[in-house]
Predict the structure.
Amino acid sequence: RSFCAAMLIRGVSVSRRVVVAAHQRRRVYTKSLVEEIRELSSTGGKPLRARVFRAKDAAAFPSFEATNLDGDGVSLPAAFEKRVTLVAISFRQVGQQALGSWMTPLGERVIASSRARSHTKIVHLTIVENPIVRLFKSWILAALRRANSDPLATTTQLLRIGDSEALRRALGDDQRMDNRLAGFVFLVDHDAKVRFHASGNADDKELKLLFDTTVDLVAEREKKRL
């Protein structure tokens, strides 16, 4: 009896440690609104700093499903069609507003160049983590269609509903994609590797870094004749 009791207590103790550890890992990606606001203030609205990655150091863009504005399922990164793709991700409207400072300038360059149009894409992904929202999916898609203000028609709008922890872990750097008030951008190459990332409102220096990296990646794609 004492042996069984000891094993039971030990099992409960181990289970408790596992639960606590899982909670702590999840806590990293579940900040309170106050913590998110404080972080935006301390980082100047940029929790994920602009950074370029060499091909050998670049992480793969994660695979997942999303929905386009017509309600059709879309698989990423297959939908990028091996093009150099700017993926802009927002969880809240405030983050979405910041993304325009990245998408619009790049879109203006893309629309002005036939070379750029044949080698690049721009994707805006809206993530809603509350699974209950699935009941209102058609309404959300209609709202996104009404809010789609892309006069150049260079951006593909996508929606994902559900938990995004795995996605944020795959794309985050030093666990910095945990602030859902910010907007995030990722430049993905023809091999679906993340070669640049940033967050918040783009400044001139960051835009130049994005443009230069895009030009380099387009040149790489042309060499491979994709």
Observations:
- Residues 129 and 162 are 4 Å apart (CA to CA).
- The two ends are 70 Å apart (CA to CA).
- Residues 2-28 form the longest helix (27 residues).
- The chain has seven helices and eight strands.
